[in-house]
Amino acid sequence: MNDFAKKLFQDSKLAKETTPVVVSSRIRLARNLADFKFVKYACKGDLHAVAERCEKILSSCSIFTNNTILNMGDLLDYEKLALVERHLCSQEFIMENNESKLFFTDDHLTSIMINEEDHLRMQVFRPDLNFKTMFDKINAIDDHVSENLNLAFDNRYGFLTACPTNVGTGMRASVMLHLPALVITKQIGNLILAVQKLGFVVRGLFGEGSEAQGNFFQISNQQTLGFAEVDILSRLTQIIRSIIEYELNAREIVKKERIIWLYDNIGRALGILRGCYCLTSIDAINCISLMMLAVDLGYLPNTLRGDLHQMMMKIQNSHMQVLENRVLNGGERDIKRAELLREFFATVPNLKFD
Amino acid sequence: MEKCQFCGKPATVHMTQVINNKTTVIRMCNECASKHGLFDKEGLPFAMLSGLGEALFSGMKQNLSANGLICSKCGCTPMSFKETGRLGCPHCYKDLKLLIDGIIESSQKGTIHKGKYSREGAMAATMNATGSFTDTSAKKSPRRLSTKERLNELQEMLDAAVKAEQYEEAARLRDEIKNLKGSEGVS
Ligand SMILES: [Zn+2]
Ligand SMILES: [Zn+2]
């Protein structure tokens, strides 16, 4: 494995400690330097200066111990995309300019994009729903940054951002949820509408279109102005707690009313994962989602939950290319993916239905 | 299969947005979605996305008197904002205030910052163990570096740039130092 691959594949706490229903959560803050144009309008020299300044401040921050800074311009396309797959940076971040840098800690729980659409996009992650810890952490990082850089701030508008949809707190908090039972019982559509009416945004995590694949959804706050950070986080926490309850109830209903259907689907999915020789990423994610459900329902050992999450990362297109250290075409990827899955699921014990 | 609203190809990205009880649905293909910077799919009201055209902008409260505005620092105008979906610099919030207030009204529920460093001092918050938050409001505003501190920092960076033989960067820093000294009347 090359250095980049090692950094990418180091044991992810995020995967290992993931919980049922809540897969992971994140808080992101957008900040800009007062004395420079926003990224889209800034010249190369300005962007370079912003990057230098931010890097200097971040590397002097005592909060971080083991971290990496990557110059995005030095990376291969699939390496950049693998960082997106890992949620360490956004898709937009890798498209824009060569003066951007990505800072992240070795545990992958903190990452900071320098020169995304805002000069700084700082994010912290957790494998569960614990916004208190996350907020304390990112707030401390933000304190360090705002003590050492002239941030663009206005008493009325708060933190000034390149897009007014982020102004104010500049904060976006999101939770990735695994909601197979709400999808099976067809309650997900109404839930999405209800959550949107409360001013929060829902999107499917994998696949495109109105049908989210693999039953993974991300919920985040839409409004950033007019509320304190803590109020936004409390409301999001409340909403997520009720969604968890709905999902758990829906699982009971599925077990009561459609148990044969459930056994059949989970059993077939494991069969596919053990026997496949060519598998698309959508099919793979749908099968893994059913394996996660099987763990949650006690049909597979609990210890598998983290491994399944790791597998889900590993079989994504760019992760496999990093692993192989070369570009793979679509067909090659499906074959490699099947190989990784076959190997892993050969070690998984048989299902224990109750 | 639904078609992309922009180019007519099959739509793969479908988004529904509800702002203040008004629902907007947008369908587009992958290409158009990325062209319009639709990657940060969280929280972006569609009417606001760059280049989405007049049809969508009609959903947004438009202040016609905003049309002649221009930012004195960066030259950004309501037109260039419509094209890119992004403002040019922090000063735009002053010079393009009419435009920005319209956008904020249609995309945000609040109009005044109540978070970190806000006047109400609502923050530097901590959450208690049960998950609800309490305020400790420690700070009132972000610290501003003094001119002297900034000059020191720039001088440091200039020295480093010269040492590393980055002459372009060094020239830029020299200009910045000159400007700063000029604007603050420091000799
Ligand atoms: Zn299109
Ligand atoms: Zn401006």
Structural description of this entry:
The complex is a heterodimer of chains A (354) and B (187). Chain A has 14 helices and ten strands. By secondary structure, chain A is of the alpha+beta class. In chain A, the strands form two sheets. An eight-stranded antiparallel beta sheet of chain A has the order 2-3-4-5-1-8-10-9. A two-stranded antiparallel ribbon of chain A has the order 6-7. The longest helix of chain A has 29 residues, at 229-257. Chain B has helices at residues 30-35, 54-57, 78-84, 92-95, 97-107, 147-163, 167-184, and strands spanning 13-19, 22-28, 126-127, 133-134. In chain B, a hairpin with a 2-residue loop joins β1 (13-19) and β2 (22-28). The complex binds zinc ion (ZN) (2 copies). One zinc ion binds next to α1 of chain B. One zinc ion binds at residues 71, 73-74, 76, 88-89, 91-92 of chain B.
List the SSEs and their pairings:
The complex is a heterodimer of chains A (354) and B (187).
Chain A: H1 3-9, H2 13-16, E1 22-31, H3 44-59, E2 67-71, H4 77-85, H5 91-95, E3 101-105, E4 110-114, E5 120-126, H6 131-148, E6 153-154, E7 158-159, E8 171-178, H7 180-184, H8 188-197, E9 200-206, E10 213-221, H9 229-257, H10 259-275, H11 281-296, H12 304-314, H13 317-324, H14 330-346
Antiparallel strand pairs in A: 1-5, 1-8, 2-3, 3-4, 4-5, 6-7, 8-10, 9-10
Helix pairs in contact in A: 4-13, 10-11, 10-14, 11-12
Chain B: E1 13-19, E2 22-28, H1 30-35, H2 54-57, H3 78-84, H4 92-95, H5 97-107, E3 126-127, E4 133-134, H6 147-163, H7 167-184
Antiparallel strand pairs in B: 1-2, 3-4
Helix pairs in contact in B: 6-7
Bound molecules: zinc ion (2 copies).
Compounds present?
Answer: zinc ion
Mean pLDDT of chain A: 91
Poorly predicted ranges of chain A: none
Helix content of chain A: 40-55%
Poorly predicted regions of chain B: 37-62, 121-139
Q: Tally the beta strands of chain A.
A: 10
Radius of gyration of CA atoms of chain B, rounded to a whole number: 22 Å
How far is the first residue's CA from the last residue's CA of chain B? 68 Å
Biggest sheet statistics of chain B: 2 strands, antiparallel
What is the number of helices of chain A?
A: 14
Give the DSSP E fraction of chain B (strand runs of 2 or more residues): 5-15%
Give the N-terminus to C-terminus distance of chain A in angstroms.
42 Å
